[in-house]
Design goal:
Layout: E1 3-7, E2 10-13, E3 18-25, E4 32-39, E5 46-51, E6 58-60, E7 68-73, E8 78-83, E9 92-100, H1 104-110, E10 116-117, E11 121-126
Parallel strand pairs: 2-11
Antiparallel strand pairs: 1-3, 3-8, 4-5, 4-9, 5-6, 7-8, 9-10, 9-11
Length: about 130
């Protein structure tokens, strides 16, 4: 069974940090680009950051550039999102997704689509 399991969310004060993890199983992890997306109630899903299958290309939304860092460890089938200097507007449910045969631009900016999705983890940033 294909699984993507997010962890690491929680409640933090503005300016704080969190590290999200996405653990994958049931598919060939290094054949897939991985992305982090977020969605708040009443708001469209947003591509936050995506990373290519071989770790040679990354994308960051302008709103998080300089604050968030995406990385992957293919040996561990895990992708991370280090989030620093968090702002209240970062509050959302964060999902990881896997997509084959895609560029990070297409995945994160264009279709904002994945072949597989995790269940999400809540990130809440208080003022």
């Amino acid at each position: 069974e294909v699984q993507l399991v997010e962890s690491g969310g929680g409640l933090v004060q503005a300016g704080g940090s969190l590290r999200l993890s996405c653990a994958a199983s049931g598919f060939t992890f290094d054949d897939y680009a991985i992305g982090w997306f977020r969605q708040a109630p009443g708001k469209e899903r947003e591509g936050v950051s995506c990373i290519s299958r071989s770790d040679d290309n990354t994308y960051y939304a302008d709103s998080v550039k300089g604050r968030f860092t995406i990385s992957r460890d293919n040996a561990k089938n895990t992708v991370y999102l280090q989030m620093n200097s968090l702002k209240p507007e970062d509050t959302a449910v964060y999902y990881c997704a896997a997509r084959r045969w895609t560029s990070v631009q297409a995945m994160c900016v264009g279709a904002r689509r994945g072949d597989y999705w995790g269940q999400g983890t809540q990130v809440t940033v208080s003022s």
